[in-house]
Design brief:
By secondary structure, the protein is an alpha+beta fold. Among the domains are: 72 residues, no CATH class; 124 residues, GHMP kinase, C-terminal domain (Alpha-Beta Plaits, 2-Layer Sandwich). The two termini are 24 Å apart.
Length: 294
């Protein structure tokens, strides 16, 4: 999500762009028709989650009970309480798991496609958040996303301005728990005027044409969001000599930030020890698909 973090939960428009990296779901037959095996693999094929379930949802084996219970609930719901057996399901990421690029959302989209279920309904039934990442995974294009009622959203495909190709993403090497941040934000006093300002900023992002405009836009989005969530931006504390634009992404303080570098900004960040800095088009898809899918 490039704009609208936090505020999207209260109905603000948000701009979201799909990453090049994703997740894949593969089905393999087994010899036991009464069970289903579930394995989640990292990009280097390490199995970080292993589950064995019966077709009625009993957990027989797992190395993570909390995650196994979520997978169980998703499978029971997706397949109308009748989980298919005789299968080993492999879910494989092609990005680093700690990057936080939406593994849960892409899983929902993949599972819904397999079971021929509505992915958004499945998400809202079992997970917290706005659901923007599920919609982005479904569209595989840049979208403007908005919650219009509890558990109900609308979105449209939009085109980002070419200026964003000059931006970079900086990996902070930290992690925030999105569900915890959602609960914290929900406890704060609602500020509809600020939410409306974020909607205006999301609209404005699509027509920015210059470096200066984008840097100013990032600063204003950061300022308004800081007021909304009652937190200070990490920019001045962590990157006091950064000259260009800076914008937090997702739950503040974790995963990635979005930067519009000027002068020697990239060298400055590398000098601070940050080595994972990616040009926009290396991480995200700039150009939307043509109408014929090409």
């Amino acid at each position: 999500m490039l704009s609208g973090e936090y505020a999207v939960l209260d109905g603000a428009k948000a701009i979201s762009c799909p990453s090049h990296q994703g997740q894949f779901l593969e089905l393999h037959k087994t010899q036991n028709p009464s069970t289903i095996e579930w394995q989640a693999l990292t990009e280097d094929a390490y199995c970080w989650l292993n589950i064995v379930l019966t077709t009625n949802g009993e957990i027989l084996e797992t190395n993570d009970l909390a995650k196994a219970e979520l997978i169980r609930a998703l499978l029971l719901d997706a397949f109308n309480q009748n989980i298919p057996g005789g299968l080993r399901v492999e879910c494989r990421l092609d990005f680093k798991r700690e990057w936080g690029l939406g593994s849960s959302s892409t899983l929902i989209a993949l599972l819904a496609a397999w079971a021929k279920k509505d992915a958004m309904e499945l998400f809202f039934q079992h997970l917290t958040g706005s659901g923007y990442d599920v919609a982005t995974a479904l569209e595989k294009q840049t979208i403007c996303y908005q919650l219009i009622a509890p558990n109900q959203a609308k979105w449209e495909v939009v085109q980002l301005p070419s200026i964003v190709k000059k931006t970079h993403f900086l990996y902070l090497g930290e992690k925030q728990i999105s569900s915890t941040e959602v609960l914290r934000y929900d406890r704060l006093e609602k500020q509809p005027a600020l939410v409306n300002t974020i909607t205006q900023l999301s609209d404005a992002l699509l027509s920015i044409q210059s470096d200066v405009e984008l840097i100013d836009w990032m600063a204003e989005h950061e300022r308004i969001t800081g007021l909304l969530i009652q937190q200070e931006s990490h920019r001045n504390r962590r990157f006091p000599k950064l000259q260009g634009g800076f914008k937090s992404l997702g739950a503040w303080g974790g995963d990635f930030v979005w930067i519009m570098p000027l002068a020697n900004d990239l060298e400055y960040l590398k000098g601070l020890g940050y080595t994972e800095i990616f040009p926009f088009e290396q991480m995200l898809s700039f150009k939307n698909k043509a109408p014929n899918g090409d």
